[in-house]
UniProtKB/TrEMBL annotation:
Coiled-coil boundaries: 765-1051, 1100-1166
Assembly and interaction partners: May form homodimers. Associates with components of the nexin-dynein regulatory complex (N-DRC) and the CFAP184:CFAP263 complex.
Protein purpose: Associates with components of the nexin-dynein regulatory complex (N-DRC), a key regulator of ciliary/flagellar motility, and might act as an inner dynein arm (IDA) hub or linkage.
Cell compartments where the protein resides: Cytoplasm, Cytoskeleton, Cilium axoneme
InterPro entries assigned: Beta-prop_EML-like_2nd, CFA-57, Quinoprotein_ADH-like_sf, WD40/YVTN_repeat-like_dom_sf, WD40_rpt
Provenance organism: Aotus nancymaae (Ma's night monkey)
Keyword Repeat: yes
Family of this protein: Belongs to the CFAP57 family.
The gene coding this protein: CFAP57
Protein name: Cilia- and flagella-associated protein 57
Top-level taxonomy: Eukaryota, Metazoa, Chordata, Craniata, Vertebrata
UniProt entry keywords in alphabetical sequence: Cell projection, Coiled coil, Cytoplasm, Cytoskeleton, Repeat, WD repeat
Length: 1252
C-alpha cells in the first residue's frame, strides 16, 4: 500500500437518478447520494460526512431508510451483479451491518427498496424481465417470500409497506397497482383493481388502509382497502400573458413552483413526457409525500401541490402560492425559454416543519411549512437547500494561488466559483452557450472561459462575472493561465494560441498536432508548454522560439492528460493504452500498467513526491513518486462516472476532482512518511475583490438614500414610541384599578369557602361514624351465616363418605361381571371384526378415490372462498373495530364501579379465606379416596391392553407362517429353471477361458516390445544431450571470439583518434616525431607482433573449418533424430491401439465371468436351502391336517367353556412359536450339500394336502 493518503472533505453535487434520493436522518441532517458516496449533510452547521459505496460499484440505484432512523439500505450494481448493503447509521463512522449478494433467484438489479414499520423486514423490487418482489428478513439474510409483480415486462417504480402493518405491501408501476399481504409464508394479492389501468408513477400511504396514487396524465387516485374512492385531475393552463394558473377538479390545493435551472439534459429518463394541446398540459406526478395534515405531490415541471386536510372528511383547504424566478441572465437573448425541471423526490422532516425536494437537474430545494404565506394564501418561495449545483458533466476545473477559489464550468451552460475553505458558492452565472474549458488567474481576479462560440476573458466582481474581452476561438476544449499570470494559452482544434494578459494580443501560434489537443500544461518558470492529443503525440514547446524542443509520438495511443514534474525534466502522460508513461528527452523511460483501467486525468504535487490519477471508473488512485513498479497505490471510490479533471492546490494540501456525474470533490491529502508536504503559508489568502466604478457609484447613491430613509424612520419611530408610552400608561392605570377590585372580591369568596369547608368536615365525620356502625353489624351477621354454612357442609361430607363406600362395593361387583363378559365378548368380536375388516378395506379404497376428487373440488372452492372472505373480513374488521371502541368506553365506566366493589370484596375475602382453609382439609381427604378409585381404573385398563397385545401377536404369527409356505413353493419352481441355466453357462465358460489365456500371452509379448522401445528412446535422448553440450561449447567459443573482435575494434578506434591528433602537428616535425614515438610506445609494446598476427590468421582458419564440420554433423544428427522419432511415434501409437482393444476385450470377459459366477453361487445357495427345508415340512404336514377338523368341535362349546378355550389358544400359540424357532434354525444350516430335492409332483401333492 502507498503512504500517500487522500481523505474526502466535501462534495458539491447530487445524483438525481437514484430512487428515493432524499432522506431525513434527524431534524438537521439529510442523506443524499453524490458520486459513489451517500452524504450525511447537516443543514445548520454545514458539515458533511460520507458513507462510501461498495468497491467496484458501477451504479447506485435506490435508497431506503428504516422508520426508526437506524439503518440505511443501498441498492448497487457491483461488477454487473446486484448488491444490497445495509448500513448502521448510529455508529460513527457508519458501518456495514449486512450485505445481501447471494440470491437463489434470477435478478439483474434492484430498483426500489422499503423497510417495514418495525425495521425487521426489507422489500426489494427487481427490474424487468424478472420483476420479482422479494420480502426479506434482512438480519438473517432469509427470503420470506417472493412473487412476480408483472408478467408483461412493464417497469415497476415504487414499493412500500403500510405504516402500521408489516404484512401489507403496495406496488405501483406502468399498468401495475397491487395490494399484497404476507400470510402463511407467501405474498398474496389482497384485492384486484377494477377499471382501466394507468401508468402509476408514485404513491404514498395517508392512513392504515388509504393510499394516494399519481399517474403520468396528471391524475390523483385515492384507494381505500384496494377500492377506488375518488379521482382528481390537475390541469395547468399557460396563458399568453406569462402568468400561470393551475386548476384542480374536485379538490383544493396549494401550488408550489420551483425556480428554473437551465440544462440540456432531458427530464426524468424512465417517465413519458407530458403531452400538450393548445396551451394546455397534463402534469406528471413523479413524487408524493404524506404528512399529518395531508400530502404533497409534484404537478409537472417545477410545481408541487400541497393538499391540507380540513376536518375528518376528505375536504382540503385551498391555498395558491406563487414562486419568485431567478435573476435573468443579461447574456440571454430569450430568457423566458429557460428549461424547467421535474421534481423526482419529496421528503418531509421528522417534525414536518420542512419540505425538501430534489429535481431532474440535480438540484435540492427546501421550504418551511410554518411560513405565514402558506397559512394566509400569499406568495411563498422555495429556496436552495445548499446552493445551485451542476446538472451536467463538468468540463473545466481551475484554481489560483492568492485566493481559496475553485472555478468550474459545465455542459449545463453555467460557471460556478467555489470557496474550498468555507465550502460555499461565491459566484454563479448561466449563459446561452455551453462552456468547455476554464482557467483562473493566479491572483483570483480573472478567468478565461472557452465557450462554444467564443473565448472570453472575464472579471470576477463581488457579485457578478463580466466579460471584458472576446476572441473568435470556437469550442476551445483547453485553456490555461501561466504560473506567473502574464500569459494564457487556448486550444483551437489542433493549434495552440498564446496570448498576453497585458495587451491581450495573440503573440504566438503553436502548430504541429495532427489531431485534437486534449491537454496542455506549463512548466514552473513558464518557459515551456507541454501538449498532448488524440494523435498520440506529446510535444514540448519552447515559447521563446515557438518551436518544438522534444517530441514523443505513439500513434496507437490517444492521450487524455499530460503533466510535468516540478523540475521540468520528466513528462507524465496517460491515455487509452492502459498505462502511465514517463517521457524524457523524446523517449519513453517507463510504462506503469493501469491494471485494466483507463487513466483519464493525472496530477503531481508541487513537491514532486505525490501523484494522483483519475480513472474511467470514477476512482482516484494515490501513489508516491518515484513511481513503484508493483501495484502500490491507494484507490478511493469517488465518482459515478469517468474523472474529467484533477488539480492540486498551490500548497499541496487539497486535491480537487470533477467527473461526468457533475460532482466536484475536495480531498485532504498528506504523506504518512512526512515527505513532500510544503510548509504553511507565510502570507494569508488575499481578501481584495474587484468592483467597477459604476457599481461603486450606484452603491454610494443607494447608501445615501438608505441613510436619509433611516433618519426619517428614526424620527417616525420616536414619535410613535411617545404615543405608545402615553397609551400604555393609561392602560396600566385601568388595569391596576381592575386588579384591586378583583382582589377584594376574591377575599370575600375565600371567607365564604372556608365556612362551607368547616360545615362539610362536620358532616363527613358523622357519615364516617355511621359507616363504622354498619360495618360492625354486617360483620356479626356474616359470622352467624358462615357458622350455619359450616354445619351444613359437615353433614354433606358425611353423606359423601357413605356414598363413596357404596360406590366401591358396586365397582367391585361390576369388575367381576366385566371379567366374565369380556372373555365371551372377545371371541365374538374377533370373528365379527375379521369379516368387517375385509368389507372396510374395499370401502376404504373407494373412499380414498372419492376423497381425492373431493380434495380437487375443495381446492378450487377454497380459492374462490378465500377471495370472497378476504373482502368480507375487511368489512367485518371495520365493524368490530367500532364495536371495540364502544366496549372500551363501557369498560372504563365499569372499571370505576369495580374499584369501589373491590374494596368491599377484600374485607369479605379475608373471612372467606379462613373458612376455605377448613374446606381444604376436607377436600384433601376426598382427593385420597379419588386416588384409590383412579388406581383401580388403571389396573382395569392395563388388563385390557394385555388382551389386545396377545391377540395382535397371534395374528402376526399366522401371517408369517403363510408367507413362508408361499416362499417354499416359489423356490421349488425356480430350482428347475436354474439347473438348466447352470448347465448352459458351464458350456460357455470353457471356450472363454481359452480365449483369455491366448490374450494374456499376446499382452506379455507386447509388453516386452514396449520395454525394447523404451530402451531405444533413452539411448536416443542421451545422444541428443551430448550434441547439445557440444553446441553450447561452440557457442561459448563464438562469444569469446566476438568479445576479442570488439576489443580490437575499440583499440583501432582509439588508435585512429590518437593518429588524428598527430596529424594536427604535420607542420611541426619535432612535435610530430614525439607524438609518433608515443603512439609506438603505446600500441607497439611487443617485438613479436608480426608472429602473433600470423598465428591469429591460422587459428581463425582452423576455427572456421572445425565449425563447418560440427555444423554438418549436427544437421545430419537432427535429421536422423526426427526420422527415428516419427518411426517410434507411429510404432508406439499402433501398439497403444492394440493394447486398448485387448484391455477392453479382457474387461468384457471379466465382467461376463463375474456375472456367471454370481449366478452359479446364487443357484447353489438356493438349492442347498430347499434341500434342507423340504424334509421338515413333510414331517410337519401330519399334525397340521388335524387342526382344521378340531376347530369346529371347539367352537361348539365357546359360550359354555370360555376359560378352556383361552387355555387351548395359549397352547396353540406356544406350539407355533416352537415351530417358527425350528424353521429359523434350519434356514441358517447348510451342511447337507449332496442331498437331492424331492420331485415336483410330490411337492405339489404336499401343498394340496396342506391347503385342504
Amino acid at each position: 500500500m502507498s503512504s500517500v493518503v487522500a481523505q474526502s472533505l466535501h462534495v458539491f453535487g447530487l445524483r438525481s437518478r437514484v430512487a428515493n434520493n432524499i432522506l431525513y436522518f434527524d431534524e438537521q441532517i439529510i442523506i443524499f447520494p453524490s458520486g459513489n458516496y451517500c452524504v450525511k449533510y447537516n443543514v445548520d452547521q454545514k458539515w458533511q460526512k460520507f458513507i462510501p459505496g461498495s468497491d467496484r460499484s458501477q451504479a447506485m440505484l435506490a435508497l431506503s431508510i428504516s422508520p426508526n432512523r437506524r439503518y440505511l439500505a443501498i441498492s448497487e450494481t457491483v461488477q454487473e451483479k446486484p448488491v444490497i448493503t445495509i448500513y448502521e447509521l448510529s455508529s460513527v463512522p457508519c458501518r456495514k451491518r449486512r450485505v445481501l449478494n447471494n440470491f437463489d433467484f434470477q435478478v439483474q438489479k434492484f430498483i426500489s427498496l422499503a423497510f417495514s414499520p418495525d425495521s425487521k423486514y426489507l422489500l426489494a423490487q427487481t427490474s424487468p424481465p424478472e420483476s420479482n418482489l422479494v420480502y426479506w428478513l434482512w438480519e438473517k439474510q432469509k427470503v420470506m417470500a417472493i412473487i412476480r409483480t408483472d408478467t408483461q415486462n412493464n417497469p415497476v417504480y415504487q414499493v412500500s409497506f403500510s405504516p402500521q402493518d408489516n404484512t401489507q405491501v403496495c406496488v405501483t408501476g406502468n399498468g401495475v397497482f397491487k395490494l399484497l399481504r404476507f400470510t402463511e409464508g407467501t405474498l398474496k394479492q389482497a384485492s384486484f383493481q377494477r377499471g382501466e389501468l394507468q401508468n402509476y408513477l408514485a404513491h404514498t400511504w395517508v392512513a392504515n388502509d388509504r393510499i394516494i396514487v399519481g399517474t403520468d396524465t396528471g391524475k390523483l387516485f385515492l384507494f381505500e382497502s384496494g377500492e377506488q374512492r375518488w379521482e382528481t385531475s390537475i390541469m395547468v393552463k399557460e396563458p399568453t400573458l406569462g402568468s400561470k394558473s393551475l386548476d384542480v377538479i374536485q379538490e383544493s390545493e396549494s401550488l408550489i413552483e420551483f425556480p428554473p435551472v437551465s440544462s440540456p439534459l432531458p427530464s426524468y429518463e424512465q417517465m413519458v413526457a407530458a403531452s400538450s394541446h393548445s396551451q394546455m398540459s397534463m402534469p406528471q406526478v413523479f413524487a408524493i409525500a404524506a404528512y399529518s395534515k395531508g400530502f404533497a405531490c409534484s404537478a409537472g415541471p417545477g410545481r408541487v401541490l400541497l393538499f391540507e386536510k380540513m376536518g375528518e372528511k376528505d375536504v382540503y383547504r385551498e391555498t395558491v402560492l406563487h414562486l419568485e424566478q431567478l435573476p435573468v441572465d443579461p447574456q440571454s437573448s430569450d430568457p423566458s425559454q429557460s428549461d424547467k425541471q421535474d421534481i423526482l423526490c419529496l421528503c418531509f422532516s421528522p417534525s414536518e416543519e420542512t419540505l425538501v425536494a430534489s429535481t431532474s437537474k440535480n438540484q435540492l430545494y427546501s421550504i418551511t411549512m410554518s411560513l405565514t404565506e402558506i397559512s394566509k394564501g400569499e406568495a411563498a418561495h422555495f429556496e436552495y437547500l445548499m446552493y445551485p449545483l451542476h446538472s451536467a458533466p463538468i468540463t473545466g476545473l481551475a484554481t489560483c494561488i492568492r485566493k481559496p477559489l475553485i472555478a468550474t464550468c459545465s455542459l449545463d451552460r453555467s460557471i460556478h466559483i467555489w470557496n474550498y475553505e468555507t465550502n460555499t458558492l461565491e459566484l454563479y452565472k448561466e449563459y446561452q452557450e455551453e462552456a468547455y474549458s476554464i482557467s483562473l488567474h493566479p491572483s483570483g481576479h480573472f478567468i478565461v472561459v472557452g465557450f462554444a462560440d467564443k473565448l472570453r476573458l472575464m472579471n470576477l466582481l463581488v457579485d457578478d462575472i463580466r466579460s471584458f474581452k472576446e476572441y473568435s476561438v470556437r469550442g476551445s476544449r483547453e485553456c490555461s493561465f501561466s504560473n506567473g499570470g502574464h500569459l494564457f494559452a487556448a486550444v483551437n482544434g489542433n493549434v495552440i494560441h498564446i496570448y498576453t494578459t497585458t495587451n491581450l494580443e495573440n503573440i504566438l501560434s503553436l502548430k504541429g498536432h495532427t489531431g485534437k489537443i486534449r491537454s496542455i500544461v506549463w512548466n514552473a518558470d513558464d518557459s515551456k508548454l507541454i501538449s498532448g492529443g488524440t494523435d498520440g503525440a506529446v510535444y514540448e514547446w519552447n515559447l521563446s522560439t515557438g518551436k518544438r524542443e522534444t517530441e514523443c509520438v505513439l500513434k496507437s495511443c490517444s492521450y487524455n492528460c499530460v503533466t510535468i514534474s516540478p523540475d521540468a525534466k520528466i513528462i507524465f502522460a496517460v491515455g487509452t493504452d492502459y498505462t502511465l508513461k514517463e517521457i524524457a528527452d523524446s523517449s519513453i523511460l517507463r510504462e506503469i500498467p493501469a491494471f485494466d483501467v483507463t487513466y483519464t486525468a493525472i496530477a503531481i504535487s508541487h513537491s514532486g513526491r505525490m501523484m494522483f490519477v483519475g480513472t474511467s471508473l470514477g476512482t482516484i488512485r494515490a501513489m508516491r513518486y518515484p513511481l513503484p513498479l508493483q501495484k502500490e497505490f491507494n484507490e478511493y471510490q469517488a465518482h459515478a462516472g469517468p474523472v474529467t479533471k484533477m488539480l492540486l492546490t498551490f500548497d499541496d494540501q487539497f486535491l480537487l476532482t470533477t467527473a461526468e456525474d457533475g460532482c466536484l470533490f475536495t480531498w485532504k491529502v498528506f504523506d504518512k512518511d512526512g515527505r513532500g508536504i510544503k510548509r504553511e503559508r507565510e502570507v494569508g489568502f488575499a481578501e481584495e475583490v474587484l468592483v467597477t466604478k459604476a457599481d461603486m457609484e450606484e452603491k454610494a447613491q443607494v447608501m445615501l438614500e438608505l441613510k436619509t430613509r433611516v433618519e426619517e424612520l428614526k424620527m417616525e419611530n420616536e414619535y410613535q414610541l411617545r404615543l405608545k408610552d402615553m397609551n400604555y400608561s393609561e392602560k396600566i392605570k385601568d388595569l391596576t384599578d381592575k386588579f384591586v377590585q378583583e382582589m377584594e372580591s376574591l377575599k370575600t369568596k375565600n371567607q365564604v369557602l372556608l365556612t362551607e369547608k368547616e360545615k362539610q368536615d362536620i358532616s363527613h365525620r358523622e357519615h364516617v361514624e355511621e359507616l363504622l356502625d354498619k360495618q360492625s353489624r354486617e360483620l356479626q351477621d356474616l359470622e352467624s351465616c358462615n357458622n350455619q354454612k359450616l354445619l351444613l357442609e359437615y353433614e354433606k361430607y358425611q353423606e359423601l363418605q357413605l356414598k363413596s363406600q357404596r360406590m366401591q362395593e358396586e365397582y367391585e361387583k361390576q369388575l367381576r361381571d366385566n371379567d366374565e363378559t369380556k372373555s365371551q365378548a372377545l371371541e365374538e368380536l374377533t370373528e365379527f371384526y375379521e369379516a368387517k375388516l375385509q368389507e372396510k378395506t374395499t370401502l376404504l379404497e373407494e373412499a380414498q378415490e372419492d376423497v381425492r376428487q373431493q380434495l380437487r373440488e375443495f381446492e378450487e372452492t377454497k380459492k374462490q372462498i378465500e377471495e370472497d372472505e378476504d373482502q368480507e373480513i375487511q368489512d367485518i374488521k371495520t365493524k368490530y373495530e367500532k364495536k371495540l371502541r364502544d366496549e372500551k368506553e363501557s369498560n372504563l365506566r365499569l372499571k370505576g364501579e369495580t374499584g369501589i366493589m373491590k374494596k368491599k370484596f377484600s374485607s369479605l375475602q379475608k373471612e372467606i379465606e379462613e373458612r376455605t382453609n377448613d374446606i381444604k382439609t376436607l377436600k384433601g381427604e376426598q382427593v385420597k379416596l379419588q386416588g384409590v378409585i383412579k388406581s383401580l381404573e388403571k389396573d382395569i385398563q392395563g388388563f385390557k391392553r394385555e388382551i389386545q397385545e396377545r391377540d395382535e401377536t397371534i395374528q402376526d404369527k399366522e401371517k408369517q407362517i403363510y408367507d413362508l409356505k408361499k416362499k417354499n413353493q416359489e423356490l421349488e419352481k425356480f430350482k428347475f429353471v436354474l439347473d438348466y441355466k447352470i448347465k448352459e453357462l458351464k458350456k460357455q465358460i470353457e471356450p472363454r477361458e481359452n480365449e483369455i489365456r491366448v490374450m494374456k500371452e499376446q499382452i506379455q509379448e507386447m509388453e516386452a516390445e514396449l520395454e525394447h522401445f523404451h530402451k531405444q528412446n533413452t539411448q536416443l535422448e542421451l545422444n541428443i544431450t551430448e550434441l547439445w553440450q557440444k553446441l553450447r561449447a561452440t557457442n561459448q567459443e563464438m562469444r569469446r571470439e566476438r568479445q576479442k573482435e570488439r576489443d580490437l575494434e575499440a583499440l583501432v578506434r582509439r588508435f585512429k583518434t590518437d593518429l588524428h591528433d598527430c596529424v594536427a602537428y604535420i607542420q611541426e616535425p619535432r612535435l610530430l616525431k614525439e607524438k609518433v614515438r608515443g603512439l609506438f610506445e603505446k600500441y607497439v609494446q611487443r617485438a613479436d607482433m608480426v608472429e602473433i598476427a600470423g598465428l591469429n590468421t591460422d587459428l581463425q582458419q582452423e576455427f572456421s573449418r572445425q565449425r563447418e564440420h560440427l555444423e554438418r554433423n549436427l544437421a545430419t544428427l537432427k535429421k536422423n533424430v526426427v526420422k527415428e522419432g516419427e518411426l517410434h511415434r507411429t510404432h508406439y501409437v499402433r501398439i497403444m491401439q492394440e493394447n486398448v482393444s485387448l484391455i477392453t476385450e479382457i474387461n468384457e470377459l471379466r465382467r461376463e465371468l463375474k456375472f456367471t459366477r454370481s449366478q452359479v453361487y446364487d443357484l447353489e445357495a438356493a438349492l442347498k436351502l430347499t434341500k434342507k427345508v423340504r424334509p421338515q415340512e413333510v414331517s410337519e404336514a401330519g399334525p397340521r391336517k388335524d387342526m382344521p377338523s378340531m376347530a369346529p368341535t371347539m367352537r361348539l362349546n365357546e359360550q359354555e367353556e370360555t376359560g378352556r378355550i383361552i387355555e387351548m389358544q395359549r397352547l396353540e400359540i406356544q406350539r407355533l412359536r416352537d415351530q417358527i424357532q425350528e424353521q429359523e434354525q434350519v434356514t441358517g444350516f447348510h451342511t447337507l450339500t449332496g442331498a437331492r430335492l424331492p420331485s415336483l409332483s410330490n411337492s405339489e401333492a404336499d401343498f394340496e394336502v396342506k391347503t385342504n
